[in-house]
Every structure is written in C-alpha cells, then in structure tokens.
Amino acid sequence: MSGPRGAVGGAAEWEAPVTVAELVNGGPLAGARMYGAGESPVHQVRIVDELAVFSSVAPHTAVVLIGAAASGGWAVEMAMRRAWEQAAACVIAPVGAVGAGSSAVLSERLGITLVFVTADPLVTAVEVASAAARPAAARTQLVARCATRLAEAGASARRVLGVLNAELPGTSVAFVDEYGTRLAGRTAALSSGIVGAWPAEVVVRGPAGEVLGRLVAGGPARSAGWPSVVRTVLELAVAPLAAWAATERLAAAGDFALQSALAERLLSEAASGSEHLEDTAGSEVPGSLGGLEDSDGSDVPGDLGGRSGRRSDDRRAGEGVWARAVALGWAVRGPVSAFMVRPSGWTADRQDAPTAGEVIAATLGGAPVVRRGDGWAGWSALEPGELAERLGACLRALPWPCAAGVGTPVTGLRAVGESLLGAEAAAFLAGGGRVARSDRLGPAELLAAIPGGVLRAPATVVLRPLMAADREGTLLETLGAVLSEGGAVRAAERLGVHRNTVTARLERIKEVGYDLDDPATRLALHLAWHVIRQD
Fold it and tell me: What is the mean pLDDT of residues 405-410?
C-alpha cells in the first residue's frame, strides 16, 4: 500500500517498518507508558506466556507478555533480558506487572524498550500486529485523525498549531512569517539542534495567493517514514491557516475600530522591541490585542476588543497581535513607507473615519489605517512611487477633497514613526487632490508652508542688486537653474542654451557682488529665488 494521494514522500517511506515510538506516540499503543528510546522497528508480534518461548523469537519482534511471563517483577525482568538477547524490538507488559522505577533502570541498562499497557494484552497484540503488517495503513490512520482534529480546530492559528503539536508527539511544529519570526507553535521547531537532519517545511499562502509564512517541523526521527507523515499532516494544516487569514481579513474589513486598534498596538509593540517573539519560554507579549501562547501553541484567550470596546469571538481568541497582522497581509518586516491622508478645506469627524479608512485600505491593498490628527495614516511595503500612485487613486475615490503624503522608506516598524513624520509634512504641503513624497520635497514645497508675504520683503532685499542689473530677467532665470540643477552643464540643458552662455551669465552675477562659492550665499539666493518665483 502506498501513502495517501498528495502525501510528501514516496511509497517506500510510508511502507517503512513502524517503530515502537510511532506505535506509542500515534498508533495502537497511544497513551501507554514507554521506557526507552523506542527507536527499533517492529516487523512482527509474538505473544509470550512463558520464558521458554523466547528461544524462537525473531529480531525486531514486539513481545507481548501474558500469563506466567507477566506474573511479577522477576518474570518481567527475565523477559526483558531474554528479549535483549534475541534483539527484540520491545517488551509489552500489563500495567502494574513491575515497579516503574526498576523498569526504567533495567530498560536503560539493557537498551530494550519496555511498554506498559492498560488494555487487554491480547487485543493490544492484534492491533500492534496489524500496524506492523500494514505500516502505511497505520500511518494513514494517524493522518486521518489529524485531519479530523484540524477540521475541529477551526480558523485559528493557535488551535491549528495546538493540534499539530499534540498529534505529532516528539515533533516540534511552529508557524513562522516570511522573515522567520515565530507566530505560533513551539520555539524548539526553530532550533537546528533539535530539528536534526529531517526538517519539514510547508509554505502557507493567504487568500490572495501571497505567502503568509511557513509551517516548520522537526525532531527525532521516529522511523524512516515519520518525516513523510509529518509533511503530509503539515500540508493538511495549510487550508485551515488560509481560512484563518481570510476570517481575520473579513473581520477587520468590517470593523475599522478593531483594525485601527490592532495597528496602533502593533506599532506600540514594535517601538518597544516586543516584536521579537522567538523567546525561549514560547510566549508572546500579552495585551489588549494579544494573548499568551503556551509551549504547544494552544489557546489562552485574551481580550481582543482593544479600543473598539468589544471582545473577539472564540474563533479568534488568543491570537497574538503579530500573528493577526500577518494574517491581514500587513507588512511587519522589511522596508516600509508611511503614508498620510488629510482633509483639504474641510474638517473630518468620527463618522467619516470608517468610510475613509475602508476606501484607503481597499485602494492600497493590505495596508493598516489608523486615525491620526485630522486625517488617516498607515504604512505599506509598496515602493514609494507605487504607493504614491495608489494614493492618487485613493484621493480620486474619496467622497471629500483630501491631500496625501508618502514618507521615506525605513527598515521596519520600529522606525516607521520617522517615516510618518515625513508623510505628515508631505501631506500638509501637497495641496488638495495631490500626493507629495517627503523624499522629493524641495525648497519650493517647504516654502509653500509659509505665507508668501512673510518672506517677500527679505527675498527682495537679497536679490535687489541682481534684479537692478538684470533688465531682461535672464540672469535671475540662469541663477535659479544653476542652483536647482546643481551645475552649469545641467542648467544649460534646462535653459536650452550653450554651456558657455551659462558660464558667462554666472560671471556677470558674480560681478554684481554675489560670492557663488559661499554655501550660505547660495542658500540665501536659492530661497529668495523661490519666494520671488511664487509671485
């Protein structure tokens, strides 16, 4: 029998003999007490009622003790010694047949695995024999049980990871974002020392096909077929994680206050350095929009109502703020740019906020939006030029006149406040219906924020000698071109004249009394030129 259709790994892996550890962790011996590593493969089962039977026990046999062979501590210990001599896979005995302490010591000394069961040993023998004869079928049963449990977990990353870590004992599973930050599950899954030679990894995509993160698993190899089983189970977990992301996006799309509070909390945690979730305790920073994560990824519900004043339903209980941001498709690492949209010529009230927030988020795609001052702000992983273009479309879609600004890219959320300041300044200077980028602001844009009459008189004083000698205005025009373009060559291209013509005009400007080699003089002349040019 081959493995399940679509399973990762060939049929040979699924048909590899099951090990004692597999039988205990996810097979017919589930719940039994095991002493020893359980690494031996089980090829067959032999029921032993007296020690003399051991002479015909083949290697890699699971020995099930009954009758006189399980009548007391001495009998079980002798059976373990004989099993070791015959290279048996393990000894299975009724619970209570011998003390746990002496059993553990003898198991370690001999290197033979001992398993205590509470069920009827004869029934256990039949079940273990079936699993040993049909290892692929036994593993398929485990996969089927995991599929059922995953379906019961619902759209919750925490619950999905709880199922994976509970149903795959001895294996650590974690859900990480595309940058490797743990969002749910066990920290041990990210340890190269524990993952060993068979790390399993499955990409998880969101509702729009974008990469949300990866499921990573690893641990001691229970058998040659165990890694293939783990990969198959991880594949089954992709669908509920995608459903979790879709559920989070639907909830945020219909609740501006909720997603706004989530964004504010995310920025707060990023500023404090709390975004590093790969802590050794396996916990996440608690708060109004987060919860606590235990070591296996199961749920500990927290208050998800945030500033909206409402609690999340059980479906999202316990989801951490960072994990929910990833589910919503928000950028949490890498270069990000802040943006600002503000009213132009009118004052927004609280009733306008949801509509504006929804339009902005829908236009930008996967961007958080929060109310900031008299407008709305957020951040995006889009390149500044593309972000500006989308904001332009957003301004055309909004039912009120607005202006927008784009901040300079920063390395991550911890520095997004710096980008936001630039976005605010750019939005202030942009003017109604326009988008400005803070990295493109020049003297003209900065001066536009100051009433023209304030600088008109000082600018006239600075330029009066030049204006008196420049009857045709060519010297003033050339001065502005040289200062704006940074040199005579580019100024000549801008003016459409020969470079020598620009050089000659600069000499005339110097003759008026301006030292163009002095940085302070060049700055004063440039600012004054912009002020005069605005009139």
Answer: 92
Arithmetic mean of pLDDT, 511-531? 86
Residues in contact with 486: Cβ distance below 8 Å, sequence separation at least 6, in sequence order: none
d(CA 442, CA 197): 56
**Is the per-residue pLDDT at 216 higher than 60?**
yes
How confident is the model at residue 493, as a pLDDT? 92
**Mean predicted lDDT score pLDDT of the chain:** 81
E strand or H helix that includes residue 177: strand 172-177
Provide the phi-psi class of 137: left if phi over 0, else alpha when psi is between -120 and 50, else beta.
Answer: alpha
Query: What string of DSSP letters covers 29-72?
Result: TTT-EEES---SB--EEEEESSGGGGGGPPTTEEEEE-GGGGSS
Cβ atoms of 98 and 72 closer than 8 Å: yes
- If one counts every other C-beta atom within 10 angstroms of the C-beta of residue 148, the result is 12
d(CA 437, CA 110): 73
Q: Which two tokens stand for residue 313?
A: 């339903």
The pLDDT tens digits of the residues spanning 292-338 come to: 233 444 433 333 233 333 333 433 444 678 888 888 889 888 799 99
Query: What gap in Å lies between CA 270 and CA 322, rounded to an integer?
Result: 10
Q: What DSSP string describes 180-226?
A: S-EEEE-GGGG-HHHHTT--EEEEEE-TTS-EEEEEEEE----STTH
Q: What is the dihedral of CA 509, 511, 512, 516, to 10 degrees?
A: 50
Whole-angstrom Cα Rg for the chain: 36
